[in-house]
Every structure is written in C-alpha cells, then in structure tokens.
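Design request, tokens follow.
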C-alpha cells in the first residue's frame, strides 16, 4: 500500500487463520508493537472482494497508519487524494471518497461483499454522509472500494477511516 508523499508505503499482510497476528508482528514475523498493515481475514485480493479493508496502527511517530489522523484536514486530503495498492494482478489506484471518524456501530466498514453494484454505491454514499468534508469523489459506478482503518481516540472504539473507490475500472 502506498500514499504518495506520506510515510505510508508498506507491504500488506494477511493471516486468515489468525486475523490479528500482524497487530504485533512485522513483515518478517518478528514481534513488534508497530505491527504491520494487514488485510481483514475475510478479504480476498486474488479473487477480489468488493471492499478490501486494511488495518494499521495509529503510531504517534506517524509510522504505520499514524498519518491517517492528518486526513481530518481538507488541505491534507487535497494534497494526498489517492491510494495505490499493489496486488498480484498489478497496481490499483483508488481515489479517497470519504474521510470519517466512526465506529462499527455507526458505519459497517468491515463489510467485504455486496449483493449488487447499488449496495456498493450505498456503502460509499453512507461513508460520504459521515465524512468530515466533501471530496467530490462518489461511488457511482464503482466496482471496488478500499477502506483504510486505524484507531482514533475521540471515544472508545472510534476509528479514522478512509473509503476510496477504484479508478479506471
């Protein structure tokens, strides 16, 4: 995963049999409090899920997904509007449609599949309704989303969430 001109440039790991393994392990499986960005266990990048969810720690140093806090600023989003995700099929580009602070009771960011294109569009629309500001990017016609998630500290279970739509589909 890469967001240009930020420190977010990491491999993304996944362990379906131990979903939180990479919360406390690095890319080389060494124990670390920093962990490593990891994909939700029920996501599938090879036979792509409709929504790929990637988690990373919110480190005070800005490491891992620590920079996601800065997306609360419109100007920061404007300077960093795209996310790139390398899959076995190639480099995918996503445009950030929504920046929100929420928890799973407010927004079901853990949902990986949708029954129809309209349901996926509704997911993006719901994120945009909770967004801190309007990005001008919508989910109309999108076929896939990427959701980045890290802790936020405004209330218990709060999360910084970016919802991005795939471009060039």
């Amino acid at each position: 995963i890469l967001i240009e001109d930020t420190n977010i440039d990491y491999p993304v790991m996944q362990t379906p049999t131990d979903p939180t393994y990479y919360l406390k392990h690095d890319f080389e499986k060494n124990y670390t409090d920093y962990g490593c960005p990891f994909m939700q266990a029920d996501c599938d990048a090879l036979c792509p899920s409709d929504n790929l969810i990637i988690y990373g720690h919110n480190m005070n140093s800005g490491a891992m997904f620590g920079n996601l806090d800065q997306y609360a600023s419109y100007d920061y989003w404007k300077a960093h509007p795209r996310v790139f995700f390398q899959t076995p099929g190639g480099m995918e580009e996503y445009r950030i449609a929504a920046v929100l602070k929420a928890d799973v009771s407010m927004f079901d960011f853990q949902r990986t599949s949708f029954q129809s294109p309209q349901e996926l569009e509704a997911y993006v629309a719901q994120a945009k309704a909770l967004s801190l500001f309007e990005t001008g990017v919508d989910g109309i016609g999108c076929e896939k989303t990427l959701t980045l998630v890290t802790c936020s500290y405004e209330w218990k279970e709060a999360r910084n969430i970016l919802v991005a739509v795939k471009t060039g589909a």
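Comment from the thread starter after seeing the answer: thanks! The longest helix spans residues 117-130.
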